[in-house]
Amino acid sequence: MGLAIARTFGTQGFDVAMISGNRDNLDDPVGTLGPDGITAAAFPADVPDLTLSDE
Known about the structure:
single chain, alpha+beta, two-stranded parallel sheet, 2 helices, 2 strands, 18% strand
């Protein structure tokens, strides 16, 4: 679903940023958007579980 949303916004003229916990999950999708004229950037990110455990 992420690539479809990126493509939808990209074809409307928006630059897109794709975020995933694994860099390998980003290279192919970003690479497929460029030939379509969509400016896309990839950002690997790991979001920790911020649940408070001292309750």
